[in-house]
Structures are given as C-alpha cells and as structure tokens.
Amino acid sequence: MSRLITAQTLYDDLRERLQLCWVSGQAVAEEQAISADELTARPTVAGFLNLIHPNRVQVLGLEEIQYLRSQGDAGMAGMIGEIFAFRPVAVIVGDSADIPEPLAEAADRSGTPLIRSGLPAHELADYLQYHISHSLAQRTTLHGVFMEIFTIGVLITGGPGSGKSELALELLTRGHRLIADDAPDFTQISPEIIDGTCPEALQDCLEVRGLGVLNVRHMFGDAAVKLNKFLRLIVHLEIPSDPSRPAVRDRLHGDNATHKVLDLEIPRITLPVMAGRNLAVITEAAVRDFMLKMKGYDAASAFIERHTRLIQRQNPGEVD
Question: What's the CATH superfamily of 4-136?
C-alpha cells in the first residue's frame, strides 16, 4: 500500500516541533495527500511561493505576505487564486504573519487546510521538506543484528544457529554498540544513504540462545546502545556444509560481494563459521580493512603490486 501524508498527518507529527495551529480547513485535512510517487517524480514538495512548479505544501512567510499585499486587491486575488488552483495539501503561514482575509477566504472556498506557525518561514520550509522526504522514503526490514563497529554501521546476517547474537554479545564486551537485534528497520533517506533504526518494541534488547532476552543498556550502560546509524557494511556468517572441506575462497581478496538493500548496493563480506575462529576479532579486522578501502588503500592490491615489482626486478625479461 502506498504511503501517504495529509495535512492532518503533518499537524499531528509536527504540531509541537513547528508550533502549528489550525486557522481553517481541519474538517478537510484528510482529503489531499502526498504520495511516495510524487516525491520520486519531484523531490521538492514543500517550500516557498512558486507558481511555476507549485509545492504540495505551500509555505508563506512575512515577505511573501507583504508581496501579495503589494499587488493591490486585484493582483493579490489573482495570485491567491493561482496558489489554490493547484490544490495544495496545505498552506502554512510562518513568521507569525497576519493572514490576509482574501487568503483565508480562498482557503475556505477551495477546501484547503490553512495553518499558522510562529517559526521563521525558512525553518518551516526546511523542516517540512526533511520530514516529508524521510516519512515517504523507501523502507525495509532485514533479519540480523545491526551494530556500530569502529563508527561504521554493520549489519551481521546469517542463517539460524550461525552465531549472530553471540558475535554481537562479544562485540559489545569489546566496546562496540548495538542499534537493533533481529529486525532492524532501514530507510533510504538519500540516493547514497540508508539509515538503520530499531523498532520501538526491540530497543535495547538482544536475544541470545540459552540466555534469553538481555537488556543491553542495563548490562553495559547507555554508551552500549545507539538509536540509529547509516548502513555501510554487511558481515554475513556462513556455516560450511562440510567443515572439513570449506568452500574455496579468494585467498587474496577474501569473499567480498555486494548485497542490494532498497536501491543501494552495500558491500558484503562472508565469514565462514568454523571451530576455533574468533569471529569478533575477524569482524573487527574486516571493518578496519573496509575503512582502509574507503580511504583508497587495498591491502590485497598493494600485495600483488609489491610481488609484481619483485618478479620484475628478478626476471626483467619475463614480465610485462
């Protein structure tokens, strides 16, 4: 089902933050809505007076009101008519500006919610755009443990019994932070950023087989949990079908791939789960290596280049 934002939704969500109060139109506050499809077609949906590309939520500040008044009765009536002709979801007047009577009358005639705010109009426009974009952004829920490791948002995935929660518990004892266990929510807030959060019902909790549900905040302190983090890396735990004969891996570059989350390809590292392997240390090393790659250094490529140079020096006629 498509996600929708109405004037009533905006008022309920932002009433205190943006100091909103109804002027008129509360009875029709659910009639017009902004959909996620509209946001895809035109990213800016809330902003100042724009008669060429009208905003779905029209913000008017003191300057806009003064400009309308300066046009005279006929000019103001014409511009106000254009504002409401495009059926905005709501018109919000900021700066505690006095609302011209023709504007209020036009809102009533067109059945458009009219809202006032005491905040500066530029702050209103910025926050409304952010809130609407975030609320209508693509979302998904993935199975795994989402953690902050060395400031990097890491999703630990794997099949049942692969040791995800046990690894998370060990990482917590090593000073890293939990965002969400079992079912973290992910939202694509920009073309290159996916933000991960914890559902309210699961906050601060980690389920470990044999121990049950643990409250991480109470056990390790407030610093051991975090509300949200951008997803940068996936560490996938894999149990080999035959532990005595693990799958052949790239010994130089490791088992690196990508996994698509919403519209973004996220780097994924696969770690085989085998007896005697300290997965917490290996995961930390994987994150450190990922951070180096983000800075442009690839240890495997540097290793290959070094050996190529050595071979060239020893056998100058045999290597191109």
Answer: HprK N-terminal domain-like (3.40.1390.20)
